[in-house]
Write a structure and sequence with these properties.
Serine Threonine Protein Phosphatase 5, Tetratricopeptide repeat, 67% helix, 0% strand, mainly alpha, 122 residues
């Protein structure tokens, strides 16, 4: 449906999936990604990814997708906090250092400070 451009039906399908599977991350992720990637509705994506990471089966990619809409909505402090949490909980997750460093630079720019030194996984 989504790839055919039937966005209303795709959204309804994802929402039904969430309603039928409220304790599992998969459909929250799908709905959040739909809002993030297809509709570019970052506040709605943020809402769904917040629900996603509350599920017991949320993994590193679920948490990563929570950080991205924080960044897109200008909530850089929250994005940095999420990247730091991911780094602690999932130390081998790829692309965390890159995104953390990028958001730390954005955070410093927002605060009128010099960019911090890069964080690297040992």
């Amino acid at each position: 449906m989504e790839s055919d451009g039937d966005l209303a039906d795709a959204e309804a399908y994802y929402k039904e999936g969430v309603d039928n599977n409220p304790d599992h991350s998969y459909m929250y992720y799908q709905l959040g990604f739909f809002y993030f990637n297809t509709k570019h509705d970052y506040p709605m994506a943020l809402r769904e990814f917040k629900n996603d990471v509350k599920t017991p089966d949320a993994e590193a990619n679920d948490w990563k997708m929570l950080a991205h809409p924080y960044e897109r909505t200008g909530q850089i402090d929250q994005a940095v906090s999420v990247w730091k949490l991911i780094k602690q909980r999932f130390p081998t997750a790829p692309a965390v250092d890159y995104n953390l460093n990028k958001d730390l630079k954005l955070q410093a720019a927002q605060q009128g400070q010099a960019p911090p030194a890069a964080h690297n996984t040992p």
